[in-house]
Amino acid sequence: MSAEPGSSPTPLSAPARRRTAWGRELAAFCAVALLVLLAVSAGTVWLSERIARDNALDEAEGMAERLAELLVAPVLADALAGVPGRWEELDRDVRNRMSDGSVTRMVVWRANGEIVYSSEDGQQGRVIAPSDGLLAAIGGTTVSEVDEASETTPGDGPRTLLEVYTPLTVAGEQLAFEAYFSYDGIDRQAARLRGQIIPMAIGALVVLQLVQVPIATSLARRVRRQETERTALVQRTIEASDRERRAIAADVHDGPVQDLAGVSYALSALRGSLPEERQPTVDKLVGAVRHAVQSLRRLMVDIYPPDLSGPGLGVAIADVAEPLRAADIEVLIDAAPLPETSPEVTAVLYRTAKEALANVAHHAQAKCAWVTLEETELRGAPAVRLEVADDGVGFPASTDKRAEGHLGLSLLRDRVVDLGGTVTLSDRVGGGALLTAVLPLHHAQ
């Protein structure tokens, strides 16, 4: 084999040829679709929750702005101006509005944290450090935040409330209006909106999946039919090729081989009747004819290999090694008895050994070659290992010579991989090259 030493094996094998399993693939498709549906549904629930809550908060902020403008501002302006009875009127209007429970507290603040008005008794006039929300409202921005206790009632037990701060201008003074909303109402409003969004979104996804499954099933059946038809076509092509090769081998055997064998016998019989000085010429002609017969017989084996089952494979490989022995290359063959293998696997093993030995003869500059044939395992199944080693110059840096018109190793690899096997090129310990081919005993159609 042509070679240049390297440090590590060079795998030529691709993954074993995929075997169709459309039922499993369809089940996998449905499982993935279900997982996607669950993931998208979870995302939809989360997103709808955010949308519903944001909408509820926006509505609460709008309500606080309306309370400040329409309920508090008109009466508070008179109250601050000292109009008699206006504080009582403001307090009465605020309590009437709070009677439905949606608003639990209302407070009007100055920028320094002083309470101008509070729906709770005893809070008016208190000064509390202004919060970020209060300062934002003084600056003209409506903000909301969730809190479990208000600044005005620090002694109350924990209760989840929604605080909304909104700007309030009274008699030219910039104030802040704060309204406390019950968070239960926000939750209920968000739940109503969520109940409208989720069924629509998830229902559409479920309908989409229900439509996709029959389509995927139909496509899988169609592809399976096409794969079956393609496999049958390939099988018929292979059978036709085998018949044609058998016919060509028979024609060569019954025609040129027999004719040349007859010429060889005739020349041998003629030798004795010729002058002694002409006999060497006849010997050369007989040798040439016999060499031609041997070449034709090797060609017949290449075109249509003989029965290679059992010990026949080792014998056939030994015959292939004869040209190397004729070129003074020692060939040692260790062919262990093998279990029954499929004809396709046996033929590929034979052709692989033949191609490897041809590379040894033409490129390796070797003095000795070793061929090992033994039983092994491949992916947990019974298999055959073929090793062809030499003591030559090793593999080249690149074994892909297709650009130069050399297809031997590429075709060898393709044959083995097509049957679910592997081919590995590596350096032989002690120098030279090592080709290892492993094929399963039986090739599944």
UniProtKB/TrEMBL annotation:
Instruction: List the keywords (alphabetical).
Output: Cell membrane, Kinase, Membrane, Transferase, Transmembrane, Transmembrane helix, Two-component regulatory system
Q: Report the GO terms under cellular component.
A: plasma membrane
What Pfam families does its record include? HATPase_c (PF02518), HisKA_3 (PF07730)
Q: Give the highest taxon in the source lineage.
A: Bacteria
Q: Which residues cross the membrane?
A: 26-47
- Localization of this protein: Cell membrane
Q: How does it sit in the membrane?
A: Multi-pass membrane protein
**What SUPFAM superfamilies has UniProt attached to this entry?**
ATPase domain of HSP90 chaperone/DNA topoisomerase II/histidine kinase
Domain Histidine kinase/HSP90-like ATPase, residue spans? 344-443
Keyword match RNA-binding:
no
What Gene Ontology terms describe what this protein does at the molecular function level? phosphorelay sensor kinase activity; protein dimerization activity
The entry's protein name is: Histidine kinase
Source organism of this protein record: Geodermatophilus africanus
